[in-house]
Amino acid sequence: MRIYRHFVVMFAALILLALVIGQPAHAELPVARAGMDRLRAELVVESAAAPGQTMLLAFRMTPVPGWHGYWQNPGDAGQGATFTWDLPSGWRTAAPQYPTPETYVLSGLMNHVYEREYAILVPLTVPATAQVGAKLPVRILAEWLACSDRLCVPQDAILTTMVTVGQARARDPRFDGWIAALPAPLGSPASFAVTGNDVRIGIPLPAAVALEAPHFFLGEDRVVDYAGTQRFARKGDLLVVTVPRAKFEPVNPAALSGVLRLNRAGDGVSLSATPGAVPTDGTPLVAETDPALPALPLLLLAALAGGLLLNVMPCVFPILSLKALSLARAGGSEAQARREGLAYSAGVILACLALGGLLLALRAAGQEVGWAFQLQEPLVIAALLLLAVAITANLLGVYEFAVPGFAGDSSPQGAFATGLLAAFAATPCTGPFMAAAMGAALLLPTLPALLLFAALGLGLALPFLALAWIPGVRRRLPKPGAWMVAFRRWMALPMGLTALALVWLASRVGGDVFAIGTAIVSLLLVWGLWLVGTAQRKGRSAFGFATGVLATSLLVVTFGLRALVEEPNNQTESVLNAQPFSDAALTAARASGKPVFLYFTADWCVSCKVNEGVAIEREATR
To answer: Which of 510, 482, 323 shows the shortest CA–CA distance to 408?
Structure first.
């Protein structure tokens, strides 16, 4: 019986071995991990292929509305498709061919994507020894990334199609459109030059070829800043494209390849370039807003909404409230109220334009700055801290001075100065509507970008402008009375919290010793203002003494605190074991072969710190 069982096992093993030997040899594909619910894929064969000939396979991708896939070089974020083939013996595939991509900008990042149906075409060569009439399977493990504006989902699938060896027959008609979507080869060699902070590409292109919203998609990574403004100029039959270099670890390539999009319809040409002379002059083409950015009216509305939201932030609300109450207390004429409203609005808008113009100028000079860039300077933080402390002391009644020196001044000059202060103080309090608008402002040409900053200022000024110009709104304010004193005291709370936040920010930017120094200077300022208030309560003029206190504080900030600034240690406890950014750390992380998670933050950005706590620094993210 035991011998019989051995014979049964051996017989079954022989049958299994025969079945395995009788099957054609294929590469073993990994197991697919996920479905295709957001970016559906299909493998399509062009037609039958004769022995020794090349035909096309199409990797057809269909995104659901609101989702997109990526070009071979995805840009600042994303991932192109990868393929692992399982082919019959002797069959070969060539490099995939992609249609001309689209630009997609989100939060200042430029990606190269497809938001519509598209097909990646792959040439497949059948060996000359293939048997006519054979039908052989072609399998592929495809991996790709599907993304929306909120989420990215890695997807993959094993796809199979049958290829018939024989005389070519009518091909799938869909290939006509898919081939037409491929960029046409330029046919003439291009040249490029790397100079300073720019990469210039000289592309032989007849002057008769019309260009509408052109864009150059570079095939190589870490060469250019994808989100940087591309400049185009013509010099005869040569098109010169100038693109800013990559911000982090830029490389000097031996050759370049890419696709030049000619128009909004997606027509393009593919090219390769070698180092050579590229002209620096030519006739510039008129810059156009990138079609991937939201329409300018939508961006203006977003900036306007962001400005409105800033009015309820703790660093702005006390100033606005007390300025509004000054209208109720003064009971001035309609003309006076409207003059104050216009002056306040002019001050706010001018301050936003000045900050925005300075930001754009620094960006054009190659500096890495963003909105509220001044809050990276320790002395600016110290000055803001002293201002917040002085306003808080005034609100608490330590001394009497128009809040903050001019907020209660019923004159156009005082209203204008208040507007300047409110706009400058508002920059740390970024709101959710501001991120997209301010990010877009750094990608737009100068005039549309300045319009966005003006819209931000108008939104910040609108509540006071409405009070000043609409009597019905002003009549809804409570009548002057004792409650105004209590309200003024309560307004000291958000302004005091702002001062405490600035002390913490000073420690993050200038170090603990600098923060302690600014806190001591703030206490001395409060002591000086208390002496001013004491003199006022005795009926004596304290203007000269108050001026001396202010001048001394500014001198201490300018000359005394500067020596205390040190390189801060911003390393904090992290669930993710996060490391401070540096070029060397990024290079080492990328060389490890593991995924790298890189995120940027700002200590003055309230929404950034909230995001860190609720979305990044948690076990699920790790």
So the answer is: 323
β-bridge pairing 109-114 and 102-106? antiparallel
Q: Looking at residue 6, what is its pLDDT? A: 41
Q: pLDDT higher for 446 or 370? A: 446
- pTM given for the model: 0.52
Let me know the angle formed at the C-alpha of 329 by 409 and 547, rounded to the nearest 5 degrees: 30
- Residue that the structure tokens 């659901």 belong to: 64
What percentage of the chain carries pLDDT values higher than 90?
27
Residues 50 and 23: their CA atoms lie apart, in Å, by 24
226 close to 276: Cβ distance less than 8 angstroms: no
| Of 108, 428, 74, nearest in space to 299 by CA | 108
Helix (H, G, I), strand (E, B) or coil at 602: coil
pLDDT of residue 191 exceeding 90: yes
3-class DSSP state for residue 311?
coil
Q: Exposed, middle or buried, 440 (CB in 10 Å: 0-12/13-18/19+)?
A: buried
Nearest to 91 by CA among 144, 36, 24, 31: 24
* Cα 107 from Cα 545, distance rounded (Å): 49
For 165, which DSSP code? B
Q: What is the largest CA-CA distance in the chain?
A: 121
- Main-chain phi, psi angles of 246, to 5 degrees: -60, 145
Weakest-pLDDT range from 309-313, 401-405, 465-469, 527-531 = 401-405
Residue 458 to residues 154, 214, 258, 299, Cα–Cα distance (Å): 42, 33, 42, 14
pLDDT exceeds 50 at position 330: yes
CA distance 138 to 121: 15
Q: Tokens representing 215? A: 């864009």
CA angle, residues 484, 486, 487, in degrees to nearest 5? 60
Both tokens assigned to 465: 């402008």
**For residue 404, cis peptide bond before it (omega within 30 degrees of 0):** yes
Cβ neighbours for 31, distance < 8 A, ≥ 6 positions apart: none
* Rounded Cα–Cα distance for residues 4 and 105 (Å): 72
* CA count, 13 A, side-chain hemisphere, 74: 15
- Determine the straight-line distance between the first and last CA of the chain, rounded to whole angstroms: 58
Q: How many CB atoms sit inside 10 A of residue 167's CB?
A: 11
